[in-house]
Recover the amino acids of this structure.
C-alpha cells in the first residue's frame, strides 16, 4: 500500500466512522430495534476512537512527509453541466482542519463517556445519542470540508442537532420555545450562508475552497475574487458566522440554549458548535484579506460581542447563563483576532477555550460544593471585591448598565420588536386580506378555525 | 381619603398574604437540606383529604397514576385480597348496599379495581370502538365461563326474539337490536359461529350501554343520529375535555387545575386567546428575583438591594433609555409614578387588586394563587425573609409583600396588554370578565361516551347480559351510573394505594412476629457484648449494622438520632463558618470549634495561609475566565484543561486519589475539639465555646438512657459512636444525603464530641452521682461513616489506651469488612454495577461513584424508607429489612411507668422520620409537581436553588434520580410499648397526634414478650392477626439479596443455617 492510498484510507475512515455510527443508529431506529444503553455508548466510543485514531494517523503522516495539504475526494455527486454546477464531496486535511477535527473527536468522546453515565436510566437516552451522532457527523464534515457545499452540509447537521438537543426535554414548554428560537436564528444564518455559497459559485464557478482561495495551503492562500465581491460575500458569511456563534446581534439565543442536559450544553455552547462561526471565518480568511472594510466589520462584531458578553456575565446569577456569556466574550475575542489576521492565535484560542469551558460547564452542578470549599479556604464568605466599577462609576450609570446587562443587551427584545413584529404583522396583514377575499367569495365566514378557541386543558389528571 | 380607606384594609391584606405564604414550599437554600412534609400546610387534615385538597391547590398528583397501581396488581405487589380487605374497611356498612340489579356496591367497586377500565377522550374512544377489536372480542380478563354464558343467553334470547318480535318493552330497544342485526348477515343467523356471536353480543352490548347512559342523563334525543355508526355517536360532544380518566361529572370538577375562585385573569386570557400573559411577567420576575436573592454568585450586586426589593425594582425599571417595547415603556411610566408618589408596597398591592377588579370575597384566594404561580421563587423569598438569618444575604423583612406588589404590577400591565392584543379589549381591566363562572355547556354531554364505555367494560367482566340491561328502567340506569360516578379515579387510586400499603404493612408485621418466633433470642442476653456500636437511626445504617452483626456475632448495635444529643453550632478547623448540627426544631446554644493540636498550631497557620492563597487564586482564575482579559489568557492556555477534563471523566477514582495526595499537603494537621467552656455563658468567642461539665453529663446521660445503655453490666469495654454524612461531586442536592437528625449536616463531629465527653473522668463522676455508672474500663471512640463511598473515619485514636487497642483493632477490622458488605448490598440497587460484583469491587464501585462528575446517583439516600422500629434490637436483629427501616433503640425495661424516655424519643423521631418519608412520598408520586424533576437540566442559581434549564421557577423537592427506586408508602412505626402508654403519648403531644391521628404515618405497638402486635386504627389499637406464620431463613444477607435488583421481602438471617448449608 503506498502512501497516498494509506492517507486516502485514513481520511475516509475519519469521515466514515461518524457516518456509519449515524447510519447504525438510524437504521436500528427504522427497524424498531431498541439499542440498549451499553451498546449505544460502546458504539459511540468505538466510532470516536476509530475517527480519532485515523486523524492522528494522518497527522503523523503529514508531519513525517511534510505535506500541508491533503485533499480527499469522494466523487462528484451532482453534475449539471449547463449550469456549471457540480456537487463535489471533498475533504481537506490541513493545519486548520486537522486540529479542529481532533478537538471535535476528543471532546465528543469525552462527553460521550460522560453522558453515558449522566443519562443512565433516562427515557431519552437513545434519542440523545442519535442527536449526538448527528452532531459528531456534522462537526467532522464541517471541519474537514473542502468545498463550500460540503461545509454547508456539516453546518446544517450541527444546527439541526443543536436545536433538537435544546428542545430535548420536549414535555416542558420552555425548552421547546427556546429550541425553536435557536432554530430560527440558525435558519437566518443558513440563509446568509446559502446566498454566500451561491454568490461564490457565480463568481468562481465552483464552491471549491482551493479555487476560491487561490493556491497555497491554509493560511497562506490568497483569494481570487476582487474586493467588492469579497466584501459582499464576506458580509453574508459574517452574518452566517454571527448567527452560529451567537455574536451580536444574535447573542440572545446563547443563554436560552442552556435547556438541554448539562453535557449537551457543554459540548454545544461551551465547546464546539459555538466556535463553528469563528471556524467559518477562519476557513474563508483569504477573503477577509481582500477587504479592509470587511475586516473592520468582523472586528466590530467581535468586539461588540466580547464587551456585551463581559458585561452580561457579571450580572448573571445562575451558573449556566454566566458561563454562556463568558463563552460569548471569548468567541468575540476570537473573532476580533481573526479580523486582525492572527489566525494561529485564533485557532489556539478556540482549542484552549473549548477545553476549558467544557470542563467548567460539566462541573457546573458542583458550584455549591466548590463555593463551600472556597469559603473554607479563604476563611469567610466570598466578598465582592471593591472594583473600579464601584469606585469610579456614578450610581445612575451603574444602575443603567446593570439593567442593560440584566436585559442581556436588549438584543432579543429589539429583534422581536423591530424585526419579528413587523415581519409577522406583514403576514398577518396578508392573511387578513386573504380572509376577506375568501369570505367574499364564499359569501360568509370561510374559516372554521377562527371560531375554535385554543385548547388549554391539560391532558393530565391531577388528583 | 382614598388612601385612608386603603390603609384601613392593610392589616387584613397583610394577614391574607401571610396566610398565603403558608402554602409556599418551605425549603430554604439548598445547601442546608431539611426534609419536610411537602404538604405540611395541609397536615391538619387527614391524609386522604390533605393529599386531595393539596393536590388541587398545587395542581399535583395525590397518588400514583392508576396504571402504576394496576401494574403492581399484576406483579403481585398488590393482592386481590388486599383490595378486598381495604374496600370492605373503606365501605363499612355501605358494602352491602344493593345497586339496581347488579350486585352490591362492594362487588361493583371491586370489579372496577380488579380490571383495568380503559377510557380516554371522546375521539380516542371512538377510535377504539371503530378500529380495535373492542367490539369483536371480549376483554382478556373475562373468564371463559362468563363469556360463554353471556353469549349463550343473548343467543337464545335473540333467536327467541326473532320469532316473537313484540317481547321487548320499549320500541327504542327494538330499533336498536334491529340496527345491530342489520350489520350482520341476518339470513344465516342460525349458522353463525362463535366469533360472529361474540361480535354481535359486544356490538349489541355497546349500543345498549350507550343508550342506557343517555336514558340516565335524560338526553334521549341524541339517539337517532348517533346510533347507526359507532363512529358518529355523540358528535355533539366533540369538545370533550380530554382528561385521561375522565369518567364523570363529580370527578370533572375536581380535575380542574384551579377552581373558579382560584382563577387569575391570566387563566381567563389563556383560555380565550391562547396567549399566556405570565410569560413576560415571569421572564422579568425570575431574573429580578435571582438577582435580589443572589448570595454572592454574580459579580455585581443588584443596585439598591439594601433598600428592599420593591425600591430596588422601582429604581431599576424606571431608568430611561432601555424601554424599547411598549410594554417596557408602560412599566417605566408605572414605576416612575409609584416612585414619585411614594406608594408603599401594601398600598400598591391594594391598588393593583382594585385595578384588576378582584372581588373582595376572593381576595385571599386570589393572593394565594398569585403567589403560587411562581411558587418556588415566592417560597424562597419567604424563607430568606423568615428563616435564613445565617445566610450571607438574607432578605429583609416584608420582602414577600414587596414581591407580591411587584408581581401584581407586572401582572396587570401584561394582562391588559394581552387583553388588548388578543381580545381587542380596551376598557379598564376591572371590566374584564375573568372572574365569571365557567360556562358549563358541555358538562353533561361530555363524558357520556366515557360512561357508556365504562358500563360496557363492567358489563363484560361482571357478566351482565344485554337482555337484562334492556329491561332496566331509567331509574335503574341512573342508579348504576351514579354508582360508577361515586367511585371516580381519585377514589380508586386511594383504595389501590391503601391496598399497596396494606400488603407491605402486613408483611412487615408478619415478619416481626415470625422472626421473633423463629429466632427467639433472649431480650436481655446474659453475655456482655464484646463491643458496642451506636449509629444514627437512619435506614441507610440498617444494612451497615446488620452486616456488622453478621460478621461479629458478639457485638451489639444501637440506633439513636444522629446528633447524639449534642446540639451545637460547629466550626471545623478548615471551615469558615459555624453551622448548626442538630435537628431543625432545636436552636443550639453552644458553639464548638475544632482546633489543630496545640503543638501543631504553627504548622497549621502555614497550611491555612497556603490554603487561603490557593483559594483566592482559584477564585481569581474562575472569575477571570469570565472576563475579557482574564478569559483571553486562560483561553490561550486552556488546552491544559483537557488533561483534568479527560482524566476526571474517564478515570474518576484514580484522579481523586491523586488530587487527595496533593491536597494532603495543605490539609489541616491533627486536630482536637475544643469542648470545655471557661466562661459562664455560651457564645461564639474563644472562651465561650463549649460546654461545662454539668452540661456534658446531661447530654451523655440523655443519650445513654434513651438507648437503654444505662446499666454498668450492659456496657462493654469499647463503645463506638458513629455519625454519618455523605459527600459527592456534581450534585446540587448533596446536602439532602446528609444526616437528617443533624438538620442536613454531617454528624461526625457530634459523635466525636459525645465520645470525648463520655470519656471524661469528671463527667463520669457526675453521672455516678445521678445513678448512671460508666465502668472505668469502658472507652468511647467516635467515628464518621460516609454513606456515599462507605468510608469510615476515626477520631482521636491517639487517646485509645493501650489495653483497648486489641479490641479496637478487632472492631475496626469488623467494621471495615462491614462497610464492604454494605457497599455490596447497596450495589444491588445500582444498575451500573454488575449483579455478580464481588465485595471488594463493590467498595471500589461506590468510591468511584462519589468522585464521578457524571454520576447523577452517587447514592440513593433515603429512597425506599418505609418503616421505623422503636425498641430493643434483640427482636429485630437478624431480620433482613432491605435498608428500609429507621431503627431507634429503646429499652422499655429501663423506662419509668410514664414512659417518659419514650415520649422524649418520639417527640424527635416521629416528626423527623415522617418528614423524610413524606417528602419522598410526594416527590415520587408527582416528580415534576412536588419534586424537582430530573437533575439533568438543573441549573444552580443564586447559590440557593436549582432551576430547570435557562430560566424557570425555582425547583424545591427531590430530584427524580434520588427517588426513582422509592416505594411510596406512609411510614409504619412499630413501637415496643403498651397501647396505653402510646395512647397517652399521642394525646399529650400535638405534633405526634396530628401525624398519627391524621394517618400521615401508620402506627403499631409491639410486645416481644407476648409477640403480639396492636395496630392503630381510627383512634383505637386493634389486635393484629398475622397472615403468614413464617418467613424464609437464610444463612447471610447476601445469600438473600444476591442477583436481585428489585424490591425484596423479609428473611431471617441465621448464620447457623448458613454454616449447615456450606
Amino acid at each position: 500500500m503506498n502512501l497516498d492510498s494509506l492517507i486516502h484510507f485514513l481520511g475516509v475512515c475519519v469521515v466514515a466512522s461518524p457516518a456509519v455510527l449515524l447510519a447504525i443508529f438510524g437504521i436500528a431506529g427504522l427497524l424498531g430495534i431498541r439499542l440498549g444503553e451499553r451498546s449505544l455508548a460502546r458504539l459511540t466510543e468505538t466510532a470516536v476512537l476509530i475517527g480519532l485514531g485515523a486523524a492522528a494517523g494522518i497527522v503523523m503522516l503529514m508531519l513525517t512527509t511534510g505535506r500541508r495539504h491533503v485533499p480527499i475526494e469522494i466523487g462528484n455527486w451532482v453534475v449539471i453541466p449547463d449550469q456549471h454546477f457540480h456537487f463535489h464531496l471533498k475533504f481537506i486535511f490541513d493545519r486548520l482542519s486537522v486540529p479542529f477535527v481532533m478537538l471535535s473527536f476528543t471532546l465528543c468522546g469525552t462527553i460521550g463517556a460522560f453522558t453515558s453515565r449522566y443519562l443512565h436510566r433516562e427515557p431519552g437516552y437513545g434519542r440523545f445519542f442519535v442527536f449526538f451522532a448527528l452532531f459528531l457527523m456534522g462537526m467532522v464534515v464541517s471541519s474537514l470540508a473542502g468545498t463550500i457545499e460540503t461545509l454547508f452540509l456539516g453546518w446544517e447537521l450541527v444546527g439541526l442537532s443543536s436545536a433538537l438537543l435544546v428542545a430535548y426535554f420536549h414535555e416542558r414548554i420552555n425548552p421547546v420555545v427556546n429550541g425553536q428560537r435557536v432554530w430560527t436564528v440558525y435558519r437566518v444564518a443558513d440563509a446568509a450562508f446559502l446566498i454566500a455559497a451561491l454568490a461564490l459559485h457565480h463568481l468562481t464557478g465552483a464552491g471549491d475552497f482551493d479555487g476560491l482561495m487561490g493556491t497555497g495551503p491554509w493560511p497562506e492562500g490568497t483569494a481570487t475574487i476582487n474586493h467588492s465581491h469579497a466584501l459582499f460575500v464576506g458580509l453574508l458569511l459574517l452574518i452566517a458566522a454571527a448567527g452560529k456563534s451567537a455574536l451580536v446581534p444574535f447573542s440572545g439565543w446563547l443563554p436560552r440554549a442552556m435547556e438541554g442536559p448539562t453535557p449537551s450544553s457543554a459540548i454545544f455552547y461551551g465547546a464546539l458548535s459555538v466556535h463553528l462561526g469563528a471556524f467559518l471565518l477562519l476557513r474563508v480568511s483569504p477573503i477577509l484579506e481582500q477587504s479592509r472594510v470587511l475586516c473592520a466589520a468582523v472586528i466590530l462584531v467581535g468586539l461588540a460581542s466580547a464587551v456585551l458578553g463581559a458585561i452580561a456575565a457579571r450580572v448573571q446569577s445562575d451558573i449556566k447563563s454566566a458561563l454562556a456569556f463568558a463563552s460569548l466574550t471569548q468567541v468575540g475575542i476570537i473573532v476580533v483576532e481573526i479580523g486582525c489576521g492572527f489566525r494561529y492565535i485564533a485557532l489556539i484560542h478556540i482549542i484552549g477555550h473549548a477545553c476549558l469551558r467544557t470542563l467548567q460547564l460539566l462541573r457546573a452542578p458542583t458550584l455549591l460544593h466548590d463555593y463551600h470549599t472556597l469559603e473554607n479556604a479563604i476563611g469567610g464568605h466570598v466578598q465582592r471585591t471593591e472594583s473600579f466599577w464601584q469606585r469610579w462609576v456614578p450610581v445612575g450609570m451603574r444602575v443603567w448598565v446593570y439593567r442593560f446587562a440584566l436585559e442581556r443587551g436588549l438584543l432579543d427584545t429589539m429583534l422581536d420588536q423591530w424585526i419579528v413584529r413587523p415581519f409577522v404583522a406583514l403576514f398577518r396583514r396578508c392573511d387578513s386580506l386573504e380572509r376577506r377575499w375568501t369570505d367574499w367569495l364564499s359569501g360568509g365566514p370561510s374559516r372554521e378555525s377562527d371560531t375554535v378557541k385554543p385548547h388549554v386543558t391539560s391532558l393530565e389528571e391531577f388528583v | 381619603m382614598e388612601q385612608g380607606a386603603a390603609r384601613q384594609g392593610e392589616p387584613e391584606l397583610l394577614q391574607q398574604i401571610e396566610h398565603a405564604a403558608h402554602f409556599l414550599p418551605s425549603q430554604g437554600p439548598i445547601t442546608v437540606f431539611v426534609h419536610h412534609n411537602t404538604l405540611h400546610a395541609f397536615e391538619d387534615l387527614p391524609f386522604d383529604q390533605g393529599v386531595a385538597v393539596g393536590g388541587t391547590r398545587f395542581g399535583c398528583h395525590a397518588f400514583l397514576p392508576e396504571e402504576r397501581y394496576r401494574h403492581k396488581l399484576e406483579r403481585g405487589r398488590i393482592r386481590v385480597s388486599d383490595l378486598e380487605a381495604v374496600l370492605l374497611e373503606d365501605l363499612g356498612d355501605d358494602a352491602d348496599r344493593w345497586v339496581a340489579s347488579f350486585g352490591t356496591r362492594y362487588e361493583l367497586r371491586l370489579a372496577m379495581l380488579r380490571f383495568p377500565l380503559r377510557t380516554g377522550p371522546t375521539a380516542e374512544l371512538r377510535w377504539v370502538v371503530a378500529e380495535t377489536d373492542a367490539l369483536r372480542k371480549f376483554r382478556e380478563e373475562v373468564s371463559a365461563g362468563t363469556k360463554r354464558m353471556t353469549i349463550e343467553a343473548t343467543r337464545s334470547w335473540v333467536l327467541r326474539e326473532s320469532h316473537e318480535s313484540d317481547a321487548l318493552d320499549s320500541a327504542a330497544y327494538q330499533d336498536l337490536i334491529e340496527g345491530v342485526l342489520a350489520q350482520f348477515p341476518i339470513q344465516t343467523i342460525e349458522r353463525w359461529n362463535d366469533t360472529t356471536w361474540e361480535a354481535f353480543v359486544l356490538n349489541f352490548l355497546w349500543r345498549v350501554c350507550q343508550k342506557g347512559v343517555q336514558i340516565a342523563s335524560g338526553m334521549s334525543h341524541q339517539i337517532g343520529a348517533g346510533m347507526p355508526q359507532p363512529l358518529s355517536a355523540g358528535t355533539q360532544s366533540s369538545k370533550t375535555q380530554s382528561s385521561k380518566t375522565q369518567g364523570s361529572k363529580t370527578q370533572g370538577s375536581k380535575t380542574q387545575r384551579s377552581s373558579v375562585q382560584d382563577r387569575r385573569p391570566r387563566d381567563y386570557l389563556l383560555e380565550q386567546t391562547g396567549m399566556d400573559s405570565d410569560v413576560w411577567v415571569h421572564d422579568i420576575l425570575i431574573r429580578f428575583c435571582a438577582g435580589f436573592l443572589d448570595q454572592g454568585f454574580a459579580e455585581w450586586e443588584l443596585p439598591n438591594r439594601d433598600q428592599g426589593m420593591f425600591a430596588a425594582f422601582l429604581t431599576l425599571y424606571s431608568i430611561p433609555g432601555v424601554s424599547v417595547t411598549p410594554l417596557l415603556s408602560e412599566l417605566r411610566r408605572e414605576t416612575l409614578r409609584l416612585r414619585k408618589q411614594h406608594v408603599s408596597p401594601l398600598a400598591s398591592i391594594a391598588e393593583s387588586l382594585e385595578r384588576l377588579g378582584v372581588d373582595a370575597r376572593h381576595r385571599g384566594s386570589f393572593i394565594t394563587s398569585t403567589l403560587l404561580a411562581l411558587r418556588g421563587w415566592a417560597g424562597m423569598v419567604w424563607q430568606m425573609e423568615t428563616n435564613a438569618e445565617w445566610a450571607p444575604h438574607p432578605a429583609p423583612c416584608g420582602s414577600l409583600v414587596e414581591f407580591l406588589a411587584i408581581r401584581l404590577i407586572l401582572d396587570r400591565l401584561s394582562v391588559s396588554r394581552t387583553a388588548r392584543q388578543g381580545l381587542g379589549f380596551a376598557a379598564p381591566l376591572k371590566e374584564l370578565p375573568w372572574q365569571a363562572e365557567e360556562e358549563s355547556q358541555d358538562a353533561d354531554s361530555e363524558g357520556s361516551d366515557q360512561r357508556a364505555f365504562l358500563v360496557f367494560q363492567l358489563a363484560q367482566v361482571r357478566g351482565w347480559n344485554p337482555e337484562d340491561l334492556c329491561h332496566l328502567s331509567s331509574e335503574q340506569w341512573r342508579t348504576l351510573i351514579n354508582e360508577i360516578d361515586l367511585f371516580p379515579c381519585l377514589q380508586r387510586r386511594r383504595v389501590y394505594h391503601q391496598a399497596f400499603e396494606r400488603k407491605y404493612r402486613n408483611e412487615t408485621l408478619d415478619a416481626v412476629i415470625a422472626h421473633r418466633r423463629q429466632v427467639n433470642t433472649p431480650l436481655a442476653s446474659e453475655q456482655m457484648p464484646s463491643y458496642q456500636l451506636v449509629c444514627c437511626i437512619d435506614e441507610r445504617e440498617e444494612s451497615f449494622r446488620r452486616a456488622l452483626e453478621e460478621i461479629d456475632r458478639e457485638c451489639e448495635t444501637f440506633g439513636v438520632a444522629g446528633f447524639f444529643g449534642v446540639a451545637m453550632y460547629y466550626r471545623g478547623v478548615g471551615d469558615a463558618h459555624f453551622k448548626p448540627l442538630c435537628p431543625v426544631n432545636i436552636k443550639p446554644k453552644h458553639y464548638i470549634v475544632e482546633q489543630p493540636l496545640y503543638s501543631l498550631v504553627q504548622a497549621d497557620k502555614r497550611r491555612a495561609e497556603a490554603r487561603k492563597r490557593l483559594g483566592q487564586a482559584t477564585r481569581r482564575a474562575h472569575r477571570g475566565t469570565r472576563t475579557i482579559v482574564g478569559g483571553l489568557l486562560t483561553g490561550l492556555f486552556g488546552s491544559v484543561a483537557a488533561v483534568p477534563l479527560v482524566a476526571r471523566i474517564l478515570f474518576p477514582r484514580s484522579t481523586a486519589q491523586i488530587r487527595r495526595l496533593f491536597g494532603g499537603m495543605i490539609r489541616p494537621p491533627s486536630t482536637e475539639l475544643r469542648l470545655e467552656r471557661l466562661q459562664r455563658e455560651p457564645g461564639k468567642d474563644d472562651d465561650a465555646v463549649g460546654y461545662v461539665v454539668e452540661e456534658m453529663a446531661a447530654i451523655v446521660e440523655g443519650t445513654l438512657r434513651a438507648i437503654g445503655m444505662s446499666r454498668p453490666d450492659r456496657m462493654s469495654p469499647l463503645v463506638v459512636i458513629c455519625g454519618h454524612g455523605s459527600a459527592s461531586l456534581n450534585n446540587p442536592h448533596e446536602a439532602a444525603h446528609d444526616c437528617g437528625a443533624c438538620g442536613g449536616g454531617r454528624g461526625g463531629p457530634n459523635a466525636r464530641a459525645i465520645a470525648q465527653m463520655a470519656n471524661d473522668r469528671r463527667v463520669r463522676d457526675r453521672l455516678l452521682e445521678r445513678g448512671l455508672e460508666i465502668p472505668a474500663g469502658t472507652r468511647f471512640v467516635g467515628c464518621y461513616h460516609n454513606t456515599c463511598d462507605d468510608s469510615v473515619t476515626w477520631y482521636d485514636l491517639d487517646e485509645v489506651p493501650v489495653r483497648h487497642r486489641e479490641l479496637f483493632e478487632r472492631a475496626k477490622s469488623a467494621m471495615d469488612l462491614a462497610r464492604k458488605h454494605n457497599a455490596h448490598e447497596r450495589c444491588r440497587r445500582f444498575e451500573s454495577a454488575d449483579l455478580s460484583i464481588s465485595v471488594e469491587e463493590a467498595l471500589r464501585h461506590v468510591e468511584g461513584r462519589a468522585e464521578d462528575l457524571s454520576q447523577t446517583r452517587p447514592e440513593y439516600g433515603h429512597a425506599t424508607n418505609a418503616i421505623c422500629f422503636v425498641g430493643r434490637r434483640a427482636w429485630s436483629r437478624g431480620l433482613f429489612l432491605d435498608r428500609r427501616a429507621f431503627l431507634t433503640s429503646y429499652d422499655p425495661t429501663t423506662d419509668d411507668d410514664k414512659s417518659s424516655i419514650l415520649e422524649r424519643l418520639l417527640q424527635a423521631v416521629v416528626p423527623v422520620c415522617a418528614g423524610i418519608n413524606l417528602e419522598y412520598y410526594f416527590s415520587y408520586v408527582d416528580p415534576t409537581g412536588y419534586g424537582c424533576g430530573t437533575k439533568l437540566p438543573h441549573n444552580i442559581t443564586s447559590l440557593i436553588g436549582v432551576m430547570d434549564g435557562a430560566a424557570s421557577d425555582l425547583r424545591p423537592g427531590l430530584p427524580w434520580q434520588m427517588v426513582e427506586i422509592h416505594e411510596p408508602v406512609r411510614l409504619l412505626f412499630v413501637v415496643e410499648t403498651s397501647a396505653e402508654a402510646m395512647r397517652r403519648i399521642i394525646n399529650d403531644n400535638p405534633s405526634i397526634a396530628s401525624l398519627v391521628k391524621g394517618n400521615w404515618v401508620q402506627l403499631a405497638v409491639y410486645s416481644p414478650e407476648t409477640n403480639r402486635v396492636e395496630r392503630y386504627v381510627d383512634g383505637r389499637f386493634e389486635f393484629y392477626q398475622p397472615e403468614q406464620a413464617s418467613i424464609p431463613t437464610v444463612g447471610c444477607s447476601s445469600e438473600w439479596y444476591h442477583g436481585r435488583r428489585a424490591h425484596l421481602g423479609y428473611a431471617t438471617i441465621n448464620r447457623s443455617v448458613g454454616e449447615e448449608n456450606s
Remarks:
- Confidence is low (pLDDT under 50) at residues 219-258, 440-445 of chain B.
- Chain B touches chain A through 117 residues (CB under 8 Å).
- The radius of gyration of chain B is 34 Å.
- The longest helix of chain B spans residues 489-519.
